[in-house]
TrEMBL record:
Biological process terms in GO annotation: cholesterol metabolic process
Keywords: Cholesterol metabolism, FAD, Flavoprotein, Isomerase, Lipid metabolism, Oxidoreductase, Steroid metabolism, Sterol metabolism
Domain Glucose-methanol-choline oxidoreductase C-terminal: 499-557
Associated pathway: Steroid metabolism; cholesterol degradation
InterPro entries recorded: Cholesterol_Oxidase, FAD/NAD-bd_sf, GMC_OxRdtase_N, GMC_OxRtase_C
Domain of life: Bacteria
Protein name from the UniProt record: Cholesterol oxidase
Annotated source species: Azotobacter chroococcum
């Protein structure tokens, strides 16, 4: 008897891998692809900004509140930011339609060929991926910040980082970023003007608000809901279910019944929780499944299926190995003597190379990128100045006003007094240093006793990279005449906890299940060893750190996975 499938494919997760595969598979099978996304949709203008809304913008499911202090009330929120706390590493990931593209820093940067060492199968190396880099770059609209005579397009911190690079004898270059400045790359659309992009979604020419990492309320960021997902849903009739949390994948036998001993040749039943309706369990039959829930989410789901539910027992024991934080390291140079204005412009504009893109040195390779942060955070920065500084500014202002009164000046302009009170020197001259590089990729993911993902990160074995970044940061401090260089506080002794926004690995591509979890063979690229029709497409595939922002490589690999499934060579014509 033939099995009546609900879908040709179910995709779990809507980050770069999930969005690309949803679009490509829906083009191959219109109306027969289901996308499950645990987070919400975010239409233009809906990202949180008020203190109340931001407080509720974190991912917080009741079953996952394992270490909640009793004094804190139980509260479930399906917010944008999912912050995970692990062993010597913390991770920030996104929950929402578009995944990490909603809050990432926009950079599209290909790593050098030297990154693709023997840990990378031949079919997944730079030369093999080059066509897929090119296609995804075109779809995502990557380009540098426009250089024009319009003074509003001048980003002071870009020039500051370029000058520092010159002082270091290093090369700084403007980076390609997935930000909308209009459809014509040669003639940017005026700031703040809206138009439809090439795929029919309405976007606003970037307003330089520095809020990229909080979700772009003007839809100036080329997030996935405005390209791949927009086309998948509106042109190819993909069904998109938000607030739908993937739970379990079970292979079927020839009758369509669940059979954990089967290997996928008859398809799968996929289970998920409907978070909008009291965690009701739902399911569907599908010929194939693409797991794209991000490095942490995909690894956790497959581990739970293998080790808890016992529905996918044949998955390689390499699952969870080779976790990488992509060398992420965040630090600050505070209260310098050079203008930085970090509250203006796209969050990243340039990259300064430290033996990553040229003169490759695997031991210490990293890239230094500038960073902006929103204006409301600048007010907070000014608010945490030592109280004496505020008192002195207030006293000076009172003296100015008193002097006018004593001299009989009762009329006239007094803006200079408020300028003295509010000039905000600390936030204007403080700098964020974003670095990422080649770590050893030797972290291990496993399930904790409650059945959730846990990461063990050997920070001491990666300290050589972190030390090189810290030395550079101290030179930046000295060059700007700043008072303080400080890494993100949780890196300080005794905690020694790093933070990553680029978790990679866990389901790495390989030529055999003894070396990885997913196949790199051209005909089964991204397919889980031991199973037919079960694929992974996200950062979990990467065998090592790439040093560069990983979006470009994740996108290229995901395009390659989709081509293997559909048999259709991808182009930017979605």
């Amino acid at each position: 008897m033939s099995i009546k499938y609900d879908y040709e494919a179910v995709v779990i997760g809507s980050g770069f891998g999930g969005s690309i595969n949803t679009c490509r598979l829906a083009r191959r099978w219109p109306g027969a692809v289901l996308l499950l996304e645990r987070g919400r949709r975010y239409p233009m203008g809906s990202f949180p900004r008020s203190p109340h809304d931001v407080a509720n913008s974190f991912w917080n499911l009741t079953p996952e509140q394992r270490q909640r202090p009793k004094a804190i009330a139980v509260q479930e929120t399906h917010g944008l930011f999912d912050i995970r706390n692990f062993d010597h590493i913390d991770a920030v990931v996104s929950a929402g339609l578009g995944g990490g593209s909603l809050i990432y820093a926009n950079v599209f940067l290909e790593p050098p060929e030297e990154v693709f060492d023997d840990n990378w199968p031949a079919a997944a190396r730079k030369d093999a991926l080059q066509p897929y880099y090119a296609v995804s770059k075109e779809v995502l609209g990557a380009r540098p910040v426009p250089q024009s005579s319009d003074p509003r397009r001048k980003v002071i911190r870009t020039e500051l980082f370029q000058e520092f690079a010159q002082s270091e004898g290093r090369e700084s270059k403007l980076l390609d970023i997935n930000v909308f400045f209009g459809n014509d790359f040669d003639n940017p659309t005026a700031i703040g003007i809206q138009e439809k992009n090439r795929y029919g979604a309405v976007q606003t020419s970037c307003v330089y608000c520095a809020e990229c990492d909080l979700g772009c309320n003007t839809h100036s960021k080329n997030s996935l809901d405005l390209n791949y997902l927009h086309v998948a849903e509106h042109r190819h009739a993909a069904r998109i279910e938000t607030e739908a949390l993937g739970q379990k994948i079970v292979p079927l036998d020839e009758r369509g019944e669940e059979d954990p001993s089967a290997t996928g040749e008859h398809g799968y039943r996929v289970y998920w929780l409907d978070l909008k309706n009291g965690h009701v369990e739902c399911s569907a039959l599908s010929r194939r499944v693409v797991v794209s829930a991000g490095t942490l989410g995909s690894t956790e789901l497959l581990m739970r299926c293998r080790d808890l539910h016992k529905t996918l027992p044949a998955i390689s024991q390499q699952l969870g190995q080779h976790f990488s934080a992509n060398g992420d390291f965040l630090s600050f140079v505070i209260d310098g003597k050079k203008a930085a204005n970090p509250n203006y412009g796209p969050v990243i504009t340039q990259g300064t190379d430290y033996n990553l893109l040229k003169d490759f040195d695997r031991r210490h390779a990293f890239i230094l990128e500038d960073a902006s942060y929103p204006n409301f955070a600048a007010w907070y920065t000014e608010g945490i100045r030592p109280g004496l500084s505020h008192f002195h500014a207030f006293v000076r202002t009172v003296r100015l006003m008193a002097s006018r009164f004593l001299k009989g000046l009762s009329t006239g302009h007094i803006g200079y007094a408020f300028n003295e009170l509010l000039k905000g020197g600390l936030s204007y001259t403080s700098i964020v240093l974003l670095c990422m590089g080649i770590d050893k990729g030797n972290g291990v993911m496993s399930l904790c006793k409650e059945g959730f993902i846990h990461v063990k990160w050997p920070y001491r074995e990666n300290k050589g990279l972190y030390d090189a970044i810290e030395r550079m940061g101290k030179r930046f401090r000295d060059w700007t005449g700043a008072k303080v260089f400080v890494p993100l506080p949780n890196w300080l002794w005794p905690m020694k906890r790093n933070v990553t926004v680029h978790a990679l690995g866990g389901c790495r591509l390989a030529d055999s299940p003894q070396r990885g979890v997913t196949s790199a063979a051209p005909e089964t690229f991204g397919q889980v060893f031991g199973y037919q029709g079960l694929y992974v497409a996200d950062g979990a595939l990467l065998p090592t750190a790439v040093g560069a922002n990983p979006v470009a490589t994740i996108s290229a690999l995901s395009e390659r996975v989709a081509e293997g499934i559909t048999g259709i060579r991808p182009t930017a014509d979605l």
